[in-house]
């Protein structure tokens, strides 16, 4: 006799979910939005997730745990074939499909399926994306992939296919779009069997050559918001590392805590401050002091808590416009996600900013801002910003 899962006592229901394998959990998560949220709440993590792109499908591999730790090989892996239709076919045991594991959701495309699977297993990106020699760009263009830190190519992939994929998926192209569309890279590597010239990798991007060609070329990319990325390209390996411009001509900074981990940055301190001054086609100067200023950011989000944060800035430039003002945050907590930014506390900041792609006006905490990222409104107790993407 069938038993309605949602009618079970909480303890029994939780035990049942914990006993499900990945395939059962995926099927349960498709029943409703509530069942999807219940699946996410388990915080089930797979040991490895990867995607492989073929001629007309994407295979998503979910591997539960390390092979040396597995007790039942059949339960350790599930392979899901995604295409442009609303149907998916999961496989186990080296590709043998079973009828019970064929699912349909009419409103879903392959991109929706991919986002759903990553969401229920609390993944924000595809850790490894492998391009096979059968991959066709016409099919790849029908998929939207989240951020992928590792992009691999089969040895048999043609240079033309590699260039097309790099142009669509590579770090420097995504980085140029806008800072909320791509995490702040520290070091990204692209390993190729054959050399591809820098101008072909950076096709469509404005860049400046800083050094070369004796040991390779060093390029500088610059976005509209003044952030910069240096790209070093050498034979056999392209190493891409970001260096954000922060007016280092004359700068002092004192923070009591600083810690960097892969993909995350935590910094802050008690009684901390910084100042800088630069004259280069204009004046760029600022100073800041805070009793407490702690922030944390990772690939997807950033958070900041400030107490008694006071600062001033005076920036005039023929090319960059005007940015002057006084920051006065008695206490403020801010959270920034992929599509929005919200802050709360007590702020009486005042200033004006007119730049080619950004406008911001504040008077005693009241104001608005508009730029390439989105549009925001501010009052002393609350500020909201909605992003375009």
Automatic annotation (TrEMBL):
Which Pfam families does UniProt cross-reference here?
F-box
Q: Which residues form the F-box domain?
A: 2-50
Its domain of life reads: Eukaryota
Q: Which InterPro entries match?
A: F-box_dom, Zygotic_Embryogenesis-Asso
Question: What's the protein called, per UniProt?
Answer: Protein CBG08850
Write down the species: Caenorhabditis briggsae
């Amino acid at each position: 006799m069938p038993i309605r899962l949602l009618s079970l006592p909480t303890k029994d229901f939780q035990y049942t979910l914990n006993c499900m394998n990945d395939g059962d959990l995926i099927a349960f998560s498709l029943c409703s939005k509530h069942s999807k949220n219940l699946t996410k709440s388990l915080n089930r993590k797979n040991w490895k997730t990867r995607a492989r792109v073929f001629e007309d499908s994407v295979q998503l591999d979910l591997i539960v745990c390390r092979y040396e730790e597995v007790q039942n090989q059949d339960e350790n892996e599930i392979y899901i074939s995604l295409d442009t239709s609303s149907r998916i076919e999961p496989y186990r045991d080296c590709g043998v499909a079973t009828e019970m594991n064929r699912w349909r959701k009419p409103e879903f495309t392959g991109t929706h399926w991919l986002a759903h699977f990553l969401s229920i297993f609390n993944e924000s990106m595809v850790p490894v994306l492998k391009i096979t020699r059968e991959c066709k760009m016409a099919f790849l263009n029908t998929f939207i992939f989240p951020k992928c830190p590792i992009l691999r190519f089969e040895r048999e992939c043609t240079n033309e296919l590699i260039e097309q994929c790099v142009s669509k998926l590579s770090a420097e192209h995504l980085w140029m779009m806008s800072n909320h569309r791509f995490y702040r890279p520290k070091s990204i590597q692209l390993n190729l069997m054959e050399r591809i010239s820098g101008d072909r990798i950076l096709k469509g991007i404005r860049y400046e050559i800083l050094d070369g060609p004796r040991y390779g070329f060093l390029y500088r990319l610059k976005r509209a918001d003044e952030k910069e990325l240096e790209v070093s390209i050498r034979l056999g390996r392209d190493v891409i590392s970001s260096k954000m411009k922060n007016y280092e001509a004359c700068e002092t900074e004192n923070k009591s805590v600083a810690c960097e981990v892969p993909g995350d940055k935590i910094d802050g301190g008690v009684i901390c401050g910084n100042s800088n001054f630069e004259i280069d086609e204009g004046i760029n100067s600022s100073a800041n002091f805070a009793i407490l200023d702690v922030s944390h950011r990772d690939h997807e989000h950033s958070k900041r808590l400030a107490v008694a944060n006071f600062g001033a800035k005076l920036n005039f430039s023929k090319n960059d416009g005007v940015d002057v003002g006084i920051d006065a945050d008695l206490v403020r907590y801010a959270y920034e996600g992929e599509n929005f930014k919200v802050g709360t506390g007590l702020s009486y900041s005042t200033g004006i900013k007119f730049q080619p792609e950004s406008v911001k006006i504040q008077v005693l905490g009241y104001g608005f801002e508009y730029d390439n990222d989105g549009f925001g409104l501010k009052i002393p107790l609350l500020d909201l910003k909605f992003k375009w993407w």
